[in-house]
Each structure stands twice: as structure tokens, then as C-alpha cells.
Amino acid sequence: DVPLSPAGRAELRPAGAVPQRVYVTALQRTRQTAEILFPGAQLVEVKELGEMDFGAFEGRSAQDMEHDPAYRTWVEGMCQGPCPGGESMETFSRRVCRAFARLLDEALARGEETLTIVAHGGTQMAVMAAFARPARSYFDWSLDCGQSYLLDASPWQAQRTLTLLGENDYTGRK
Q1: C-alpha closest to that of 57 among 25, 24, 88, 99
Q2: Using CB atoms within 10 A of its CB, is residue 100 exposed (0-12), middle (13-18) or buried (19+)?
Q3: How far is Cα 75 from Cα 1, in angstroms, rounded to an integer?
Q4: What is the pLDDT of residue 172?
Q5: Model-level pTM?
Q6: Which portions of the chain are predicted below pLDDT 50?
Q7: What percent of the chain is modeled with pLDDT above 70?
Q8: Residue 164 contacts by C-beta under 8 Å, 6 or more apart in sequence?
Q9: Which of 27, 89, 114, 156 is the most exposed place for a label (fewest CB within 10 A)?
């Protein structure tokens, strides 16, 4: 559970608008990010939105594992199979998408105009690959830290899809 780095903290800028509720994962860096972006919002932890469980690979860099046969097998399989002691891409995506769909259904049932989630890159990519239009593959939805997608949920109830409206950048990089 690595905290948000000092450099990451320094880059982030408040979002401007503050939603009533922001959903975060169980890891402290999403909570810390949400506190900077949306000061004063109620933060609600949703464990199922957490990043993929990398099992034996957790906390190790690709460079550290370049000669690890299990890691090489996983990478050569396009990172689809299960990590030793962890999740497969399919299991991870199913978990995340189920949690996202539940949150969106609940927000729409309450008549809320906005659903705000601060999560991890893999979480974002899984949701976007499953539901966003125009359709893209998982890795094509990657963004830098501190960036997000803005989506229109009007087709959700009929089609279980979201329309991409644009991107947000909450950093001082641009």
C-alpha cells in the first residue's frame, strides 16, 4: 500500500467542482489523490475497484523480474493468465466491471448527475474497455497518473455502454 509520492502530490490540482461523493479504492494513494482533487467530498471506499492482484509479482518491477520464468510466461501470454498467487486479467476485469456497474446503477437510481471514482490505471482501463464507446482494447485506454475520462452515461440503462466525451488532466504538467 504505497502512498502518493511527494512528486505526485505536487503535480495534482483541485478539480474545481466538488461532487458530494467520491468512490476510492482501499489503497491510500487513491484516497490521498481524491482529497487533493475533491476537498470536502465524502470518500467512500469500494474494495472491488482495487487494482489487479499481481500475487508474486506485486511490488517488483519488470526489470527486477526480467529473468523470472513465471513472469516471462505471463508477459509472453499478453498478461492474460493468472499471476502466481494473484488474479488473471479476466478475473480482475470482471470484478472491477461488476463493482462499477453497481455504482453507476445506484447513482442513476438516486438521480445523481455525476459519478466520480478515483482508482488505478488498470481499473480505469478495464471499465473503459468493457463499456466505453468508441470501443478500444484494454491497453489503448491507458492514461498518465492524474488524468481521467469524462463519460456520458445516457446510453447506460438501454445499452450498458458509456459515451466518451473527453479527458481531464488534474496535473500541472500541461
Answers
A1: 88
A2: buried
A3: 24
A4: 77
A5: 0.93
A6: none
A7: 99
A8: 132, 133, 134, 149, 150, 151
A9: 114
